[in-house]
């Protein structure tokens, strides 16, 4: 099992460019999440999904969109990147009955110049 | 409003000694508390959890203590090993908006010195 994988691992964007981060899990988890990690701020939830075809906003959703067309994939989009979106992005997944135990991908380091 | 706080950004401990990582929270509605471990260039991995109705949970070298009256939890690692050197995130969860919402602390970087 690969667990949770993320593509790409690194990316540099110019302000105003767009991109999509890909997340895939092979554990048949119902729930998936996108977090960002910034220095001194821990992990903050951007968007989450409780099942195929459903998405919802998390703590810091502005500037991001998501889609979950297949159960195993969760995509995070930046339509017009801003320097404030420079961060490390983590995707995670979990069973619906989990009490907080989530499985994380290795992260994507994004720099917006 | 930071609901989960880890006030020590870093901690150094000698190999073989005990490591104690601390965490405070403000929301009494949290029903589970967790610790995650993160190595550089990797995602966090779940380490250990405790239900709000318990005060202690042990898993090998790792023990989590919960003091609900003080809204405080701690992670004890005994004995500490160099491979334990990582960033440890405290987290707390509660059921909200149709899922178990997890709030993370800012992390404590543990260095175990051989």
* Backbone CA Rg of chain A: 13 Å
Given the C-alpha coordinates, what overall shape of chain A results? globular
Number of helices of chain A: 0
> What is the strand content of chain B?
over 45%
Cα separation of the termini of chain B? 38 Å
pLDDT < 50 runs, ≥5 residues of chain B: none
Strand content of chain A: over 45%
Describe the protein's architecture and organization.
The complex is a heterodimer of chains A (113) and B (114). By secondary structure, chain A is an all-beta fold. Helix content of chain A is 0%, strand content 53%. Chain A is built from no helices and eleven strands. In chain A, strand 4 and strand 5 form a beta hairpin. Chain A is globular and about 40 Å long. Chain A starts with a strand and ends with a strand. Chain B is mainly β and 114 residues long. Helices cover 0% and strands 59% of the residues of chain B. In chain B, strands 2, 4, 5, 9, 10 and 11 form a six-stranded mixed beta sheet that branches. Chain B is globular, with a radius of gyration of 14 Å. The mean pLDDT of chain B is 95. Chains A and B meet through strand 5, strand 9 and strand 10 of A and strand 4, strand 5, strand 9 and strand 10 of B.
Present the secondary structure layout.
The complex is a heterodimer of chains A (113) and B (114).
Chain A: E1 4-7, E2 10-13, E3 19-25, E4 31-37, E5 43-51, E6 54-57, E7 64-67, E8 73-78, E9 87-94, E10 103-104, E11 108-112
Parallel strand pairs in A: 2-11
Antiparallel strand pairs in A: 1-3, 3-8, 4-5, 4-9, 5-6, 7-8, 9-10, 9-11
Chain B: E1 4-5, E2 10-14, E3 19-25, E4 32-38, E5 45-51, E6 56-59, E7 62-67, E8 72-77, E9 86-96, E10 99-104, E11 108-113
Parallel strand pairs in B: 2-11
Antiparallel strand pairs in B: 1-3, 3-8, 4-5, 4-9, 6-7, 7-8, 9-10, 9-11
